[in-house]
Write a structure and sequence with these properties.
The chain has three helices and four strands, in the order E-H-E-E-E-H-H. With 102 residues, it is α+β, with helices and mostly antiparallel strands. A four-stranded mixed sheet has the order 1-2-3-4, covered by helices on one side. Helix 1 runs parallel beside helix 2 (71-93). The longest helix is centred in the last third of the chain and has 23 residues, at 71-93. 22% of the residues are buried.
């Protein structure tokens, strides 16, 4: 899977890049056939913002955005939100179909 890490209005430290890559790697284990992940770091007016995007099968895109006092906290919050989205998607996908109930 391809992972892109981008920084807007600032430089993303190497430690934060490694952390973002490892979080996205862990999260993609839950996703259904992921093929591209993005982590976008933004520093605007003293706020640290992080947006995580995960492109999965059938052109589905899961997006999670979070804000925090620093980028690491915002990254962890966004990762938690993305994980919850994927958990809901997998629960929905695992429901038995009507044909299986017959």
């Amino acid at each position: 899977m391809r992972i892109t890490i981008t920084g807007r209005h600032g430089v993303v430290p190497d430690e934060l890049r490694v952390r973002a890559r490892s979080l996205l790697d862990r999260i993609t284990r839950v996703a259904s056939r992921p093929h591209h992940g993005q982590a976008i770091f933004d520093a605007d007016h003293g706020r640290a913002l992080v947006e995580l995007r995960l492109h999965t099968v059938r052109q589905q895109v899961h997006v999670a955005t979070a804000e925090g006092p620093d980028h690491r906290t915002a990254l962890d919050r966004a990762a938690g939100r993305l994980r919850r989205q994927l958990d809901k998607a997998t629960r929905h996908r695992r429901r038995p179909s009507l044909r299986a109930l017959r």
